[in-house]
Each structure stands twice: as C-alpha cells, then as structure tokens.
Amino acid sequence: MHVLDAAESSFGVKIKADNNDITLHPHDDKPRPFLCTICDKFFTTKGHLKDHVLIHTGDEFYYCTQCEKRFTNHRSLKAHTNVHSGKYKCAECGKCFRSNQHLTRHRRSHSGEKLFQCTVCGNQFTRSTHLIVHSRTHSGEKPFKCIVCDKSFSQCGNLNIHMRVHTGEKPFECSDCSRSFARSHDLVVHRRIHSGEKPYQCYVCDKAFCDSGNLVSHIRVHTGDRPYKCSLCNRSFSKSSTLLTHRRCVHKEAK
What we know:
Blueprint: E1 2-3, E2 12-15, E3 34-35, E4 42-43, H1 46-53, E5 61-64, E6 70-71, H2 74-85, E7 88-89, E8 96-97, H3 100-111, E9 116-117, E10 124-125, H4 128-139, E11 144-145, E12 152-153, H5 156-167, E13 172-173, E14 180-181, H6 184-195, E15 200-201, E16 208-209, H7 212-223, E17 228-229, E18 236-237, H8 240-249
Antiparallel strand pairs: 1-2, 2-5, 3-4, 5-6, 7-8, 9-10, 11-12, 13-14, 15-16, 17-18
C-alpha cells in the first residue's frame, strides 16, 4: 500500500491484490450473466466483469479514504468523492450525488416530472431505464437468463436474487436472532416479528399484517376472489399455496 502523489492524495490511495485466475464465460445474443470464478459474483456485461476482476488480479485499484469503496480507475474515484464533498447536493432533501447528471435525475423525484412515456399504455417514468424495464411487461422479453436452470428474468436484480437459490447465499442477517435471508425485503418483514409492527391493515375488518402480500391474500376472504385456478379440474383458490396443495393431494402431482 502506498500514498498517491500530490495530485491524487486528496482522493485516496491505491493498493495491489494477489494475482488470480479469472474465467470469462461466453454469452449468446442475449444479455447473460458473467461469473467471476474467484468470488462467484455475477455481472450482466463482460465490461462490468473485467472491471471487477481488477480487484482480484495484480492490477492496481483505488479506494475512497472516507467510506472505503473501491474503484478500478482514478476518474471514477474522483467522481465518487463529490458525494462526500457535497458538490452536487439536493437542496430539498440534502442527498449528495457524484455528478450533476445524477442530481438532475434525482430532482425529478421531488418535482414529479416524468419525461419518458410508454407508447403502449401511456405510463410515464422519471428515468429511461424504468421505461425500458416497464416495456418488457408488454413485450414479454426476459433478457437475463440463469446459467444454472435457464430461468429468465426481465430485470438484472431479480436474476441476482434468483442466483442465491443455487448458491445458498443469504447475505441479510437479523441482528436479533441471527436468521439470514436471501432478500433484503424478507429481512425487513422478519424484523417486524421482533418489533410487533403490522403496518398493513385491512380496510374491512381492521385486521393487521406485517407483510403486504398477507394483506392481499386476506382481503380475498371479504371479496371472494379466487384467482388461482387448477388447469386439471377448474377448481379455483384464493391462495397459490392452496392450489399447490390441491394438485399434490387430489391430482397426485409430485412436489
């Protein structure tokens, strides 16, 4: 580890890591995750994987002296320091950003401005990336494919969560009982068991729930809605779990 020269010292230091063997996985004509064989992290593009690989190889990388985030080049580190300096700060909520572009995009969350409109249904969005993801609900496109079971997803984040089914990774740990979860949402819901919080209340009978999904299922008791239909006998159910039990017990489907 060594200190950068005078021009760089105000932004951080750069260090070296041990050299390791990295394998870049081939991809087809659709976006497909690339696997780092050192730490098993997945990336959606070869470029992102190559940047990540520098952490493991003998190439030098930079880290922020204020929060220890690491970057593969000095330019990215320099832009990141704007978050700490407050150069691009939102006047309404005080949140800081690395560039004016990021700040401008953030301001739309306060102004309600939505520049990007879906040509199919007319829904509007504050970011072009949100429109791209939304458009897949119309096209059915699922460009992010699991390399283990070939299941496909419309969003990269959903693929990353799905991969934990195969890896067994559960990075979100409860500080009260040490239970771990694959999704941050599951941890948030679990913590309500300790706190007793039940923020989702039925508007009919005032019964409360710690998870919004449980409230949705409960409301069907009042509405009589049964959206889960058996394709073998046309019986319908209010819960997907009840349909699965029905198919296993009545139609003898394997689990």
